[in-house]
């Protein structure tokens, strides 16, 4: 039987999120028994990992099986949806829409589209077992050059996602909604926590923290200009940072993922999130917030010690993540999506 060939596109070649997606999907593709193809016209399946960047209409003319990943949350029913023109050009094409969350799939199913639930892939082994249990907090602080006297007995709140617009680093990226995090942190007792920032394009939140006196530490080199090439950390470093923080805070207004939720789950790191993307697919509903005040109160309780770290729920998130992402689960899920596509 001829092995089906898959052309995977959409990477950025800058060592950022989409490039990791390309690497993970390529590995899972081969593990699932499919051949990678470097030329689209020779492939059977065209798998694009970022739908809004897809513009290869020849794939439709050549009758390829086209699979587009909803890398950001698609909301065509919103009148101000910024990608509506792009969506309108593609929605009537013969496409299988790969939805990383149940929330996205339910929305697109209402349009009568062909959809498949396929969560974002992660390097599960790296996040689940990247550090021996004997590694101490002090050793991690030393590794990332964070002074112990800055941390002391404070709760470390993690945030490793970009928050600034690439075209204007002084403006917040509305999808990431960093101003919500700033508002919540501004009500916390300063001596009880430290916001640990990492990754590129954190200019907006760093400035807001300085302006409001919010205690924070940036793992990286502060620059006035774009720091994408300087402060993009290898995924191995991000995995270790998850082990350092006590809680990770997602305050996004719109997300396809975020992958941080998967990475926290695999790392057994407590994650709090707004109700975006795949949050409810992985986190207990008590840690997913639609109301900012409720989110802020819970975070306040954690920082002050009024609320204990819910270890049982962290373990529940880990077990759910393991079921979906530990080898060979990701390859099996991808193989099923490909097989279903070829059967159409």
UniProtKB/TrEMBL annotation:
Name of the protein in question: Glycosyl transferase group 1
Taxonomic lineage of the native organism: Bacteria, Pseudomonadati, Thermodesulfobacteriota, Desulfovibrionia, Desulfovibrionales
């Amino acid at each position: 039987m001829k092995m089906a060939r898959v052309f995977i596109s959409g990477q950025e070649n800058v060592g950022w999120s989409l490039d990791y997606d390309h690497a993970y999907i390529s590995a899972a593709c081969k593990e699932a028994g499919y051949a990678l193809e470097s030329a689209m016209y020779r492939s059977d399946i065209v798998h694009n990992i970022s739908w809004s960047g897809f513009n290869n209409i020849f794939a439709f003319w050549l009758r390829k099986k086209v699979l587009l990943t909803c890398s950001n949350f698609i909301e065509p029913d919103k009148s101000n949806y910024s990608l509506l023109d792009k969506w309108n050009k593609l929605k009537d094409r013969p496409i299988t829409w790969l939805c990383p969350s149940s929330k996205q799939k339910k929305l697109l199913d209402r349009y009568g589209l062909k959809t498949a639930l396929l969560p974002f892939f992660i390097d599960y082994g790296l996040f689940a077992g990247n550090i021996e249990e004997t590694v101490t907090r002090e050793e991690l602080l030393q590794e990332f050059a964070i002074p112990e006297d800055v941390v002391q007995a404070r709760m470390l709140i993690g945030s490793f996602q970009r928050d600034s617009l690439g075209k204007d680093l002084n403006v917040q990226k509305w999808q990431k909604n960093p101003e919500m995090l700033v508002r919540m942190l501004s009500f916390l007792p300063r001596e009880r926590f430290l916001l640990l920032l990492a990754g590129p394009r954190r200019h907006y939140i760093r400035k807001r923290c300085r302006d409001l006196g919010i205690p924070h530490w940036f793992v990286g080199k502060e620059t006035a200009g774009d720091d994408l090439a300087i402060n993009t950390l290898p995924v191995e470093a991000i995995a270790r940072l998850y082990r350092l923080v006590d809680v990770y805070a997602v305050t996004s207004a719109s997300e396809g993922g975020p992958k941080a939720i998967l990475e926290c789950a695999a790392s057994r790191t407590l994650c709090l999130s707004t109700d975006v993307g795949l949050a409810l697919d992985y986190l207990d509903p008590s840690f997913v917030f639609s109301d900012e005040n409720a989110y802020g109160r819970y975070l306040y309780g954690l920082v002050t010690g009024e609320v204990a770290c819910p270890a049982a729920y962290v373990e529940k998130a880990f077990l759910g993540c393991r079921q979906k992402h530990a080898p060979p689960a990701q390859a099996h899920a991808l193989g099923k999506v490909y097989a279903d596509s070829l059967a159409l």
